[in-house]
Every structure is written in C-alpha cells, then in structure tokens.
Design brief:
Layout lengths: L3 E5 L6 H9 L5 E2 L10 E5 L6 E5 L9 H16 L2 E7 L6 H13 L3 E6 L6 H5 L11 E2 L8 H8 L11 H4 L1 E6 L6 H9 L17 E7 L2 E7 L4 E2 L7 E2 L3 H10 L2 E7 L6 H12 L3 E7 L6 H14 L8 E3 L8 H15 L5 H14 L4 E2 L2 E2 L1 E9 L4 E7 L6 H15 L7 E6 L13 H15 L1
Parallel strand pairs: 1-4, 1-5, 5-6, 6-7, 8-10, 8-13, 13-14, 14-15, 19-20
Antiparallel strand pairs: 2-3, 3-4, 9-10, 11-12, 16-17, 18-19
Helix pairs in contact: 12-13
C-alpha cells in the first residue's frame, strides 16, 4: 500500500502550497465528514522514487475553540492516519509559540518527523533554518514551495528507506477490482452479491480503517480479486458510532486496482465528493465502471429523469460505462461483471505502431491540426507508450503547440478505433529532432544550389 505523509503546521506557513507542489495539481480528494468545518485534503504525489499519498491539514492553534478546535481535531486525525509527518514552519516569520505547539503534537504521535522551513527563497539556507533547530525535530530542510525549490529533495528524504511495492501480475491475482463510493451506497452488499455469500461484514474496532480487504474469487473460469473499501464503523472518543468514508483506504485501493467500480445510490443526487472520487480514479488512469445502485426502488416514471441528471453531472467521465443495478436483489450485477472484463481488456490492450499511425493519418486527413505562425503542425507517426491506461505517443513537428481541443479529438478517434471503452486514454506528443540541429552550415553553397535546382525541376 502507498505510504501516507501528513503536512502539519500553524496557519499561513504554506501547507497548501507545498501540497500542490508535491501532488502537481490543485485538485484533491476531500474528506467530507458532516459537521466539520475544515476538511482534510488528499492527493497522490509521484515526484520521488516512491509514490505516496499526501494529506493537507488546517492550521494548528494552541488555544483553540469553536472552528479552530475542529481544525485541530482534523489535524490530529490526519496524524493518526499518516505513516510519516512533515512539520512546516515559516522561515521569514521565524520561530513562534505555535510552531513549538505543532512540534510537541507531532512528537507525541511517535511517528517519524521531518521539519521543513518554507519561504526561504533569496536567503542563505543555513541562516534561514538556524533558529528552528530549537524545535528538536532533526535537521531542517529549507524549501520554497511557491517556487518549487527543495520540494523533491524533501519528499525523497521523507520516503527514504521505503521500497516500492512489487506489483503482482494479473496472472496470479486475476483482475483486481476496487469497489468505492460514499458510505451506505451498497458497496458491501454488491461485493457479497458478486461472491454469492455474506463475506463482507462491518467491524467495530479502532485502527482497522486503513486495512484493505482483498477477496479472491473465480467466475466462469476467470480469476478476480475484489478490494473492499466500505466505510468501517468505529467509535471515536465520545462521538456516536457512525460509518465514515475512509479516504486513505479508498485511495490506496484505487492505486492497487486494475478496474474501479464506483457505486452510487440512485436515491441521492451526485455531490462534489462523488465527482472528486471519480476525478481521483481518472487521474490515476484506472479503468472505470459506474454502478447506480438501488435502482429497483425507483418508480418507472422517474427513471429517465434521474438517468439524465446523472449523465449530465458525470459528463467528465462519459467514457465510463453506466450500469443501473440492485445489489440486494442481483438485477444488473451479472452485466456489471461482464463490463469489468471488457474495460480491463481495453485498458491492457496492445496496439501496434502501424495501426496507430494509420488511424492518426486518417484523423489528420479528416481534420487538419491548426496553423502555428502560418505553419501547419505535422503529426507523422504514433506508437504505444504504456497500458492501464493506454498511452499513445505521437511524433511530429511543432507538437508543443497542439491545442487541448485537438488532443481531445485524437483521444476520441483512438477510443472509437480501438474500442477503448471504460479506460482513460492519454495522448502525448514528441517533437522530432532535427538531424542538422547544432550544425552551422549543414550544406555547402554548391550543395544548396543543387538542391534548389532539383526543387524547381520537380515543381515543373
């Protein structure tokens, strides 16, 4: 499973800026727990040798009440979820009592800690970090998150000593299917229906929220491994026992899976958390199937209206097959598993260079790339650059100027040509190198005159 790193510190030290620098995106999966004002944010970081999950937290205040108290509680939960901690301080503002409070809270956790001194651009590194040795958190790391300075060395230091998990081959695990979604949408019921037995139960033990439950089974001679991400029940202090959406567990399951089945309740509207979850699946490049559960309880006259609303709100994931099922009664579940096989096949498909190039040539002929400074973008050939998700690498001239709209056009062309249903498709571009680059006079004057005569002769 991916290691988890939490960013903690007082307000305004740049935690969110560092989070964005580590994850390379401003989009994050948000823990949507009712009644909490400041939510934790989660993202994938792949800038070091070891990928990890990063948690962004609210600012820590020592004498907290009301809203600030909830933010402290959120930070404490992030610390409990994390494997390693980054304590962030402000190098320009200097050491404060709130920094000392943060350091004390971090030490009390017993987790490995790294101290990062932010906003050190333009300063001598040794001078910028000098006073923060007083915190007793080891050697401070100078960074400038807003300028992406020192960010990767910091992450590499935090993850040092860890080794990437060896990926199990599909031949030994079968198709790994993660079942994800908000609490109470019927994930465990769906898994039990697929297995044909009441295998998934609800636990009431602290400390189990990050354990992925993997269940192997076989259907029609094909092997599968189901990854359950159902929210687990546990009692947290004086809180009422409630089922919570375990974000860490879900993100680790998405990373591990070949195919993700996102389950939603037909009685609920699509909310921001659903969109964020699907966004995380697409960002990771996982094949996706969307299952709208409890469809049997929807009146026939309402179904078309609900179907249209769902398709409209999930238009960004329109490549994903949409199934309307009843996990409790089993209707539509058989078709769901058949679709899992199909999208897995699409995600792992091998595409030859001649076929990819032929489709590219036909696409360019039907819809030319735009002009750049009066010159046409030339797309010459394509080859496959990866699977799960399929990556198509296109070579040509001025490819750094290909607009996003034309990239989307090519994605749709390849999706249709190779039946790449249910899987994100990534198209990247490479600029062909000029063999004469760096040579001041690649041709002699005589050779240039000869070439000019040949060109004129060919025109006649």
């Amino acid at each position: 499973m991916l290691p988890v790193v939490a960013l903690i510190g007082r307000p305004n030290v740049g935690k969110s800026t560092l989070f964005n620098a580590l994850t390379g995106t401003r989009d994050a999966l948000v823990a949507d727990f009712p009644g909490l004002t400041r939510d934790r944010q989660y993202g994938f970081a792949r800038r070091a040798r070891i990928p990890c999950i990063v948690i962004d937290t609210g600012g820590l205040v020592e004498h907290a009440d009301s809203i600030e108290g909830l933010m402290v509680e959120q930070t404490e939960r992030a610390i409990a979820e994390a494997d390693r901690l980054i304590v962030l301080v402000d190098g320009r503002a200097g050491l404060t009592p709130q920094d000392r409070f943060t350091a004390q809270l971090a030490r009390r956790s017993g987790k490995p800690i790294w101290l990062a001194v932010n906003k050190t651009e333009g300063f001598d590194p040794d001078t910028a970090v000098a006073e923060f040795h007083q915190l007793g958190l080891g050697e401070p790391h100078p960074v400038a998150a807003a300028h992406d300075q020192g960010v990767v060395p910091l992450l590499e230091a935090v993850l040092e000593g860890l080794e990437p998990d060896a990926e199990e081959a599909p031949e030994t695990t079968g198709i790994k299917v993660a079942v994800v979604g908000r609490p109470n949408v019927g994930k465990s019921t769906l898994i039990n229906r697929l297995l044909g037995e009441n295998r998934m139960v609800t636990y009431d033990e602290p400390g189990t929220t990050r354990d992925a439950v993997m269940v192997p089974f076989e259907r029609d001679g094909e092997r599968f491994t189901l990854i359950d991400t159902a929210g687990l029940r546990r009692r947290a202090r004086v809180e009422e026992a409630v089922e919570k959406f375990s974000v860490i567990k879900t993100m680790q399951a998405i990373e591990t899976a070949h195919v993700v089945v996102a389950v939603m309740d037909a009685h609920d509207s699509v909310v921001e958390q659903d969109a964020s979850l699907l966004g995380a699946v697409i960002e990771q490049g996982r094949a996706l199937v969307i299952a709208i559960n409890k469809w049997d309880n929807i009146a026939p006259e309402q179904r078309e209206l609900i179907r249209g609303q769902i398709e409209q709100r999930l238009s960004f994931a329109d490549f994903a097959p949409l199934h309307f099922i009843s996990a409790r009664h089993g209707s539509g579940v058989g078709e769901l598993l058949a679709t899992v096989r199909r999208v897995y096949g699409a995600a792992m498909r091998d595409m030859s260079t001649p076929e990819l190039t032929r489709v590219l040539e036909a696409a360019v002929e039907s819809h030319q790339p735009p002009l750049v400074s009066g010159r046409r973008i030339k797309l010459r050939y394509a080859h496959q650059g990866g699977r799960n998700p399929p990556v198509i690498v296109i070579h040509g001239n001025q490819t750094d100027h290909v607009p996003d709209a034309y990239r989307r056009f090519l994605v749709n062309v390849y999706r249709k040509a190779f039946d790449l249903v249910g899987t994100p498709v990534r198209v990247s571009f490479r600029i062909e190198e000029n063999p004469f680059a760096g040579r001041r006079n690649p041709l002699t004057p005589r050779q240039r005159r000869k070439r000019k005569r040949l060109i004129q002769r060919n025109k006649r």
